[in-house]
């Protein structure tokens, strides 16, 4: 009888311990769920949750930006709510000082997802654009380059080249889709096609060049100068050389053939064997060397009429000095070298 009473007493104490532990757990749990994290700053922060990110990586990201006080507490709340695989990818604009529960709710519902603004400067090559996108979007630069050489898309957009090099319009774009390189490329290609068809195509016959040649010329102009007022004059130089059967001898085409940007073209670089090397080959290269902007495209079909055949940097890093004869050009080159 005593043993039975003793056992009953233990069971009652166990229940009390369990109840106390449950209450304690509930108190901590409520705290972990609903207590606000520290208000580190008033301005929200943009967190990028990439597609396929593990829940641990999400927690680490929030901790890195000091949105949460405890990774353990946040992880517990997330797992308790079964949110590990429900968090939406994209850019979330999160405010400081919210509870773990609120953060989980925001990430799962995507209520604070924001579009991404991306600026593509004039003169970037297709490879450089792909590298830029690879840092911002949820696909790799290789994914984008594969799409940019898709034969079906090239045909759809009337691209007279093996890739979309030169056929994407530099500008600032807003994106909501972050994991689809086709959608991203289409946005840039649509902008380019709309501009070209309206503003360039009607004047195409004026210079006697094909669409691909005009874009190629514009890309060389873009690489030569960022001084808009000078672009039509440079266009005139290259068209004059083409009419005379002269090699273009454009340094930017050699740089493109080298495969990497460099500020100075060396003498040995001029001998690189490539269809893009206009020091060795006549006529324009087989395709654009970058994605030119609107001003360079306009200059290609609205060249300045003159007799210049040469130009060299004036030394200010912005403008050029033009010459009609080779001897005059050599004097300008000497002046440039002496100024350096």
Sheet/helix structural class: mainly alpha
Total number of β-strand segments? 7
Quaternary state of this entry equals single chain
Strand content: 5-15%
If you had to describe this structure to a student in words, what would you say it looks like?
This protein has helices spanning 2-34, 55-64, 71-80, 100-109, 126-136, 141-147, 151-156, 181-200, 204-207, 211-224, 231-243, 251-258, 294-301, 326-339; strands at 45-49, 90-94, 113-114, 116-119, 172-175, 310-313, 320-323. By secondary structure, it is mainly alpha-helical. The strands form three sheets. The protein has a three-stranded antiparallel sheet, covered by helices on one side. The chain has a two-stranded antiparallel sheet with strand order 4-5. A hairpin with a 6-residue loop joins strand 6 and strand 7 (320-323). Residues 1-10 have low confidence and may be disordered.
Describe the secondary structure blueprint for this structure.
Elements: H1 2-34, E1 45-49, H2 55-64, H3 71-80, E2 90-94, H4 100-109, E3 113-114, E4 116-119, H5 126-136, H6 141-147, H7 151-156, E5 172-175, H8 181-200, H9 204-207, H10 211-224, H11 231-243, H12 251-258, H13 294-301, E6 310-313, E7 320-323, H14 326-339
Antiparallel strand pairs: 1-2, 2-3, 4-5, 6-7
């Amino acid at each position: 009888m005593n043993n039975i009473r003793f056992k009953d007493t233990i069971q009652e104490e166990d229940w009390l311990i369990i109840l106390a532990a449950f209450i304690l757990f509930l108190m901590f749990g409520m705290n972990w769920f609903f207590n606000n994290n520290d208000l580190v700053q008033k301005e929200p922060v943009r967190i990028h949750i990439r597609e396929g990110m593990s829940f641990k990586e999400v927690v680490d990201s929030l901790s890195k930006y000091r949105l949460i006080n405890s990774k353990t507490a946040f992880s517990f709340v997330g797992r308790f709510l079964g949110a590990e695989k429900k968090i939406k990818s994209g850019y979330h604009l999160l405010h400081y000082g919210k509870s773990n529960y609120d953060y989980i709710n925001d990430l799962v519902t995507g209520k604070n997802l924001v579009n991404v603004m991306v600026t593509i400067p004039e003169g970037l090559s297709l490879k450089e654009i792909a590298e830029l996108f690879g840092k911002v979007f949820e696909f790799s630069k290789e994914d984008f380059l594969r799409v940019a050489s898709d034969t079906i898309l090239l045909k759809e957009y009337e691209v007279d080249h093996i890739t979309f090099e030169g056929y994407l319009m530099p500008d600032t774009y807003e994106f909501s889709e972050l994991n689809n390189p086709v959608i991203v490329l289409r946005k840039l290609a649509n902008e380019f096609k709309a501009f070209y068809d309206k503003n360039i195509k009607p004047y195409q016959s004026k210079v006697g060049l094909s669409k691909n040649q005009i874009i190629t010329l514009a890309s060389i102009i873009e690489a030569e100068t960022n001084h808009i007022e000078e672009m039509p004059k440079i266009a005139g130089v290259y068209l004059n050389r083409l009419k005379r059967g002269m090699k273009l001898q454009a340094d930017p085409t050699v740089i493109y053939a080298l495969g990497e940007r460099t500020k100075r073209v060396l003498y040995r670089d001029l001998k690189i064997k490539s269809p893009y090397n206009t020091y060795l080959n006549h006529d324009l290269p087989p395709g654009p060397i970058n994605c030119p902007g609107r001003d360079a495209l306009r200059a290609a079909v609205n060249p300045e009429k003159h007799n210049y055949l040469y130009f060299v940097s004036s030394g200010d890093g912005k403008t050029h000095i033009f010459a009609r004869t080779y001897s005059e050009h050599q004097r300008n080159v000497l002046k440039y070298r002496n100024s350096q």
